Amino acid sequence: MIDVFICEDDLQQKKRITQYIENYIMMENLDMKVAISTDDPDEIINYLEENRVNGLYFLDVDLQHEKTGIVLGAEIRKHDSRGSIVFVTSHSELTYLTFLYKVEAMDYIIKDDFTDLQQRVIACIETANERHLATSTESSQRFQIKSGDKVISEEYKEILFFETSSKLHKIIMHTDSRQVEFYGKLKEVESLDDRFYRCHNSFVVNKDNIQSIDKKSREITMVNGESCFASSRYMKGLNKELG
């Protein structure tokens, strides 16, 4: 999933850009969401410090804040080195600062009467999505499934566990940030990678993300506090796998 961030101090401009993005995500059914739309750069940095993110950022250069959009971009790079940063500005002469601060930008959108802001924003969304899907396709360390009209892509290391759904022939994938339901079988996902282990008739767990196991109740607690269960049939094998 791609998290989208908007940092803009002009209220109307912020609303406009946010609306363009949300409408396009919904219309094209993209695997994206607007995570934060704000005029406070620190709100974005605080979010990045607490969450692992694959981000697309629309940043106003001339924020009415002690941090400019360029400085914010440099701080974002420390947390999301592969994120796509788009600077939105009415001061085209300030774009040279991105080189000074070593912020690689995907695009610069100039706010003037001649810029079709909506089309430029949409073009950036499309480019970020294409890069995300290309990276997902090239990587053997990603889990990809189709859910409705969406292609869902997730790194193996981010997956906590899979469980059978109450809906026939469906599985639920649990990650730290979301749950995704799709058609499939547990025996298919358990064979995808060595870190996945069938611990129960209803669960396949990512061994790397186990925090603790209560052997008495056979409850498995994951690194984010979520839990699943192991059956007595599989518990011995799980203990052996974990060494």
TrEMBL record:
Job of this protein: Required for high-level post-exponential phase expression of a series of secreted proteins.
Cited InterPro entries: CheY-like_superfamily, LytR-like, LytTR_DNA-bd_dom, Sig_transdc_resp-reg_receiver
Entry keyword annotation includes Ribosomal protein: no
Response regulatory domain boundaries: 3-126
Domain of life: Bacteria
Residue ranges occupied by any HTH LytTR-type domain in the UniProt entry: 143-243
Protein's name in the database: DNA-binding response regulator
Record carries keyword Phosphoprotein: yes
UniProt keyword terms in alphabetical order: Activator, Cytoplasm, DNA-binding, Phosphoprotein, Two-component regulatory system
Pfam families registered for this protein in UniProt: LytTR, Response_reg
Gene Ontology MF terms in the entry: DNA binding; phosphorelay response regulator activity
Residues bearing PTM 4-aspartylphosphate: D60
The species this protein was found in: Halobacillus litoralis
